[in-house]
Amino acid sequence: MRNKGDILLISCYELGHQPFHLASLSALLEQAGYTPVCIDTAVEPLTARAIRRARFIAISVPMHTALRLGEQIAQRIRQNNPNAHICLYGLYALLNADHLLQEAIDSAIGGEYEMPLLNLVQALENGASIDVPGVHTRTATSGPWVERTPFLVPQRQQLPALTQYAHLQWNDELRVAGYTESTRGCKHTCLHCPVVPIYHGRFFAVPKEIVLADIRTQVAQGAQHITFGDPDFWNGPTHAIRIIQAMHQEFPDVTFDATIKIEHLLKHRHLLPEMQANGCLFIVSAVESLNETVLQRLNKGHTAADIATAFALTEQAGISLRPSLLPFTPWETLDSYIDLLDFFEEGHYIEHIDPVHLSIRLLVPPGSTLLDTTESNEWVGELDGAAYTYRWQHPDPHMDELQKNVAALAERAEGNNVDPLATFFQIKASALTAQGRDFSIEDALQRYGAHKVLPHLTESWFCCAEPTCNMSAPQTITLSSRKVANDK
């Protein structure tokens, strides 16, 4: 296991970012004397030679789309190197372990993956039992490993250049973007979130100096913008502010974005000017819906009125709010979906969203906390293990049909580089048609007026949604084709 190539670490999708989950794991393995080889199949080929050479192969699957691609890669590895131990690690690996362990893989790890994976490698190297805490296998069942990791500075030297990944688009300028995490897990328990059944409300702060060292490495590699990919950057707001203040002091021209709950934006609104003063361009927030029933069923912790307040607060602070949406759930209605569209049109917020967000449908993976609710038996169907989700149908068939139409519109628009504003109104026309109402896209565009130009990444943010479009093979995925791969 000590020779270069014996351990192969693979990433297949991290939202257009240089793969953090390879860099973090590499650091720990290298400290222990191993020499892993890292490959990101989103931007570079996975060769048959690399597969045949490896004895242990770990595939990072932090989200649903990555899992789909990761299982395909695992099946290819199994055909080319049947003796290699294949491990999937990440949120969705453990949730879907029962299906994956049937054929594709040998082990799955969820939660804080570094130490369990290192212990697994050492057990395999020594010929010992692989009944390792935090490692789920065919013969040894283990839950998620949620113990504090001995954090190290991520090792990025082996990874493809940052220029091969998503960029910040700001006016007519494209800026190289990096990515890091200042916390792991989340103290909140939104019922649809894949973090919750793994971390159960716990989170860990990464030491400030580790985070800053990782930023320093990426700035040296050309990063002009940093994405903080924490599930919620303000799980520890004091920790977050200390990091951005130190980053801004050292790199005053480097900008950043972060993901923050609507609830936290209201609770800690006094911190928004500090965020802007230290280089925050935009904040991603999981708005999901304006339907109060949906927000309650998902335990989001905010209301429709709170969403309007968050837009006003961030705009006042000079920060763009970029909401992620989950508009297709069993509790959304056609009326409330149209209300959502009206909110973005009337508030002049259309430019704040990517059209694909208007198509996203609820995913219910095995272990989802939604399954623990008393009313889940009213709408949850059978588990489709191969699709990594429990099936469900909307009580109104028109909503399922609308979702398919919106997904197709968003995918075609992305492929044909259609103006997102025009796509939005095409989607609204489709929704109003389902309600039996006429709608003029041309008139709507004229009423809306001039476009706002907002800073954004060239790769959309997704979380825990059911995919609604086809994916290319891992070796041929481009940034544009990944962008429409819904993962909520």
TrEMBL record:
<dbReference type="InterPro" id="IPR054699">
    <property type="entry name" value="rSAM_CUAEP"/>
</dbReference>
<keyword id="KW-0411">Iron-sulfur</keyword>
<feature type="domain" description="B12-binding">
    <location>
        <begin position="4"/>
        <end position="131"/>
    </location>
</feature>
<dbReference type="GO" id="GO:0003824">
    <property type="term" value="F:catalytic activity"/>
</dbReference>
<dbReference type="InterPro" id="IPR006158">
    <property type="entry name" value="Cobalamin-bd"/>
</dbReference>
<keyword id="KW-0479">Metal-binding</keyword>
<dbReference type="GO" id="GO:0005829">
    <property type="term" value="C:cytosol"/>
</dbReference>
<dbReference type="InterPro" id="IPR058240">
    <property type="entry name" value="rSAM_sf"/>
</dbReference>
<keyword id="KW-0408">Iron</keyword>
<dbReference type="GO" id="GO:0031419">
    <property type="term" value="F:cobalamin binding"/>
</dbReference>
<dbReference type="GO" id="GO:0051536">
    <property type="term" value="F:iron-sulfur cluster binding"/>
</dbReference>
<dbReference type="GO" id="GO:0046872">
    <property type="term" value="F:metal ion binding"/>
</dbReference>
<dbReference type="InterPro" id="IPR006638">
    <property type="entry name" value="Elp3/MiaA/NifB-like_rSAM"/>
</dbReference>
<protein>
    <submittedName>
        <fullName>Radical SAM protein</fullName>
    </submittedName>
</protein>
<keyword id="KW-0949">S-adenosyl-L-methionine</keyword>
<dbReference type="Pfam" id="PF04055">
    <property type="entry name" value="Radical_SAM"/>
</dbReference>
<dbReference type="InterPro" id="IPR051198">
    <property type="entry name" value="BchE-like"/>
</dbReference>
<feature type="domain" description="Radical SAM core">
    <location>
        <begin position="172"/>
        <end position="405"/>
    </location>
</feature>
<dbReference type="InterPro" id="IPR007197">
    <property type="entry name" value="rSAM"/>
</dbReference>
<dbReference type="InterPro" id="IPR023404">
    <property type="entry name" value="rSAM_horseshoe"/>
</dbReference>
